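Example record for the data management plan.
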Amino acid sequence: MPDIITAVDDRIALLTLNRPEQLNALSYGLIDELMTALDRIETDPEVRAVILTGAGERAFSAGADIHEFSESVRRGRDAAVSEFVRRGQTMTARLEAFGKPVIAAVNGLAFGGGCEITEAVHLAIASERASFAKPEIRLGMPPTFGGTQRLPRLVGRKRGLELLLTGDPFTPERALEIGLINAVVPHDELLPAARALAQRIVRHSPGAVRSVVTATTRGLNMAISEGLQVESEQFAGLVDSADLDEGLAAWIARRPPRFAG
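Corresponding structural encoding:
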């Protein structure tokens, strides 16, 4: 069975982390398959949004495959950094900068790297059965897939440090309160809720959606003056687009827009 299952329906791609017996642990092979799937989806005009979830009833992803990671550590610093850290950071950076909205549907445990995926994607909905944690400190190490950087930016320095330094698990309600996720829903409603959110996005111009994602993602890591320049550039790239012409014409005519994308 593949480590990533891809299904496309009605302009939405569902990507499923598929190692349920291992709690969807992020093996090197799974990460590589996910990157390949993202490459395909990004250039597929039929796909306008992505939902990312985990197989089985227990986990979204319990984090890194520790057995595999341990082998890299045994081979020394260079191997551990190149095989583990860079691979994981490349994955979360790819998700964060992806040109189409990525929604995490967190169906169970989201520990370590699973939590870092949740931090990196654009939007996230969690099942009432979900659980989150940053347990890397219990292994004697910091998070390495971007968690020390993204989590404090999302939830604030002191809240982020509390989670990073204690390693304690926290509930989906707490994740919602601190801004890590967008909503908590009953378990059986998770994928329908994620799909409904995606549908509210894909009804809009794909160029406009892409520009919002790009400007927001890039701007968060810049001074506001630089971010405003990115915003201006994203708008300028749409000035001659058919979708902007249609959107303005529809607004003036008081009718729903009919975007070509």
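Summary line stored alongside the record: The longest strand covers residues 4-9.
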